[in-house]
Structure formats: structure tokens, C-alpha cells
Amino acid sequence: MIKLKFFTIIGIFFIAVSANATLEIKARTAILQDFLSGEILYEKDADKSIYPASMTKIMTAIIAFELIKSGELNLDEKFLVSENAWRLSSAGYSSMFIMVGDTVSVEDLLRGIIVASGNDACVALAEGIAGTEEEFAILMTAKAKEIGMENTNFANSSGINHPENVSTVRDIMLMSNYLIKEFPNEYKYFSEMEFTWDRTGGDPITQGNRNPLLYKNFGADGIKTGYLAVERYSLASSVYRNGRRLIAVGSGFESKKDRSKESAKLLTWGLTNFDLVEISKLESPLDSLNVWQGKKDTVRVYIKSDVYKTIPKARKKFLKVTLYYTGPIQAPIKKDDILGKVKITYKSELIEEFDLLAYEEIKKLNIFSRLIKSFNYLIWGDA
User: Looking at 89, 95, 117, 263, which residue is catalytic?
Assistant: First the structure.
């Protein structure tokens, strides 16, 4: 017999971009994502080509983090500073102020890149990892394609002027999401308020983080600013509050003030106009189904992924989660056997569908126990 089980959650799944009419962001291009659900809450020309400027440095850090994770690089390892790298510390660019011949640890270079936005640190790290900045940029672009950044090409490690260093705010959002998801511990560097470099031949230099949202008391913890004369001001930002994270990326802000104000406005709008609903957690049971002739009378079931939905607060209806299966389930049952389907709907519209999996193994009763069970069922109707 086909069985249905319903879970009712107050709320509504809503294609959030249709709510854009209620918000205007003063940027040429912008996007807002709910991190856990992956849903896009706002977008404005999100696939328009941009020069990502110093937001490029997010990928520079990702390449280093990947190598550290694989054991091919460690934070204490030191790289020699070349003249190429040093030149960027004395040409009016944002700098860590390293000197030719310095040997600098990977961790100091990363903090110089992430906190101080040092272009010189980018080149030193790129050359230390790949030999040349050009080879490092190839690694960056390959990684970008791997994580779905289809409209991105990196031509250098810092994002300084180069006509072939291009991306979109959607791609920068994907990159930011990947950074936070894959490197939660390393991501903490992006929330550091300042970095002090004990430089060679001079007093230590302390620089504050260039991200203006870190100085506002609303939960911002990253990510990276950018500026080029041709692109104007840009910012990839993230806020974490009450277990919920949003990621915003904007480019083409006319001023530093607009960059800060409009990014905060976008993130705040997402927090105050939408709720996040948890439907399932990876490896956590969703429910239990009846079992026939098993050593247990029920089997726990689950979805093999985290499932969240973002719900507009102003339009609450019913979001339904329904389990479809033929039951009772016949033993034996192996872990991860597909026992049915989970369908998420709003009214009659199917939003998403998942396999319903056995969370555990259920062995079959021996023949004597099965006979007793069958007899009881025939007499009493007790399955």
C-alpha cells in the first residue's frame, strides 16, 4: 500500500528575485544569497562582466588553503620576497610593505593579503607556490571553473589593473560560498580587525581591515573589498546572525560611503524580510516508517543532504514536506536502501524531490518469529 506522511511547516517557498521591486541597491550589479539554502534573495544584473579588483584575493587565499588542507603547504613555511613582489609595496598600491630578500611565513602573507589587502603579499605567495604569478593565475582560473565560476578568468593574484582579470558578482558569490563552506577555520582570518607586520628595517606597521562592515555591529564577519578606477568600488560581504548566514556581492558603487551603506542595506533587508527553515540535516533521521517481519518494527529514514528553504516573512503560507513510500517496508533493509521519495511542495507545485533512504540496517526475523508475526496479524490485525 502506498503511504504518505506529511510535515507541515509554516511558511512559503517563494522565488525571491521577484521581490526585487521592493529594494533598490545603488550599484551597477549586485546579488544576495542565503548561505544554507543557496537561494538567491536579490539580484541586479548579476551576470554582468566586472573587473573584480581586490575581491580576486579571495581566490588567492583559497588556493593556499587548498594546499594547506592537502598537506602540500603549511602556515610556517617561508617564501623569499622577489623584486616583483617588493615593487608593489612601493608603487602606491595597498601593501603589506615587505622588502626584497625578506623571508615571510605563509601565515603572515595570508594575513597581509586578507586583512591589509597587500598586493605585494599576493605576488610573494603566488611566486612561492607556483614559481610565477602567471602560473598561479592559471591555478586560480582552473579552480574557478571547478566550482562553477563559468564567467571568470584570473590574470593575476591581486586583482590590480588587467583587462583579462574578469568575473561577475554571481561568480564572486559562488567563490565566497565555497570559501566559507570548505574552510570555516581559515575563514576567521577575514574577520580580523587588524594585522601588524614586524617589517624589516623599520617599526612594525599595523593596518586595519579594509572591510567597513566589520566596524558595524550587525554580525558582519567578512569578506573582501575592491577598488579600480574603471570599476569603482566593490565588496563581497557576509553576515552571520542567529545561526543564519547571508552573502552579498556588489560592484560599481560610486563611493566608499555607498559601498558600505548599500551593502549593509542589502544584508539587513535579507535578514529582516526572510526566514530560514531547516527541513533536514545531513545524517540526521527525518522520521520512522513501519517495518514488516523485521527485528525492529520501525526503520529510521533520512535525506542524504542538508535541506533548507528560505521563506519570506511577509507571505507565510504552508510549505509541505511529504514522504511517499510503499509500506510497511519489508525486511531485510540495508542502510541507504531507497525506501521512497521526499517531495517538497508549495500548494500543488513541486519545488524539490529527494530519495528517502534507510538510516539503519534492519535484519529479517527468523522463520519461527515470522510465523508468529503472521499469525498475530491474521488473528488480531497487528502488523
Answer: 117
Active-site annotation holds for 167 = no
Q: Confirm whether 262 is domain-assigned.
A: no
Give the whole-angstrom CA distance, residue 141 versus residue 89.
25
From the candidates 37, 54, 94, 238, which is the catalytic residue?
54
Q: Tell me the pLDDT tens digit for each residue of 327-379.
A: 799 999 999 999 999 999 877 789 899 999 999 999 998 665 555 555 455 55
The one catalytic residue in 5, 44, 57, 309 is: 57
Residues 98, 72, single domain; the answer is yes
CA distance 304 to 162: 43
**Residues 337, 342, 345: CA angle, nearest 5 degrees:** 170
Q: Quick check: is 44 catalytic?
A: no
Same domain, 248 and 294: no
CA dist 127 and 88 (Å) reads 14
Query: Which strands, in side-by-side order, build the sheet including 29-34?
Result: 40-44, 29-34, 244-253, 232-241, 220-228
Domain membership of residue 231 (yes or no) is yes
pLDDT tens track for 63-114: 999 999 999 999 999 999 999 999 887 666 799 999 999 999 999 999 999 9
**pTM, two decimal places:** 0.87
Among the candidates 218, 253, 288, a domain finishes at 253
DSSP 308-329: EEEEEGGG--EEEEEEEEESSE
176 is catalytic: no
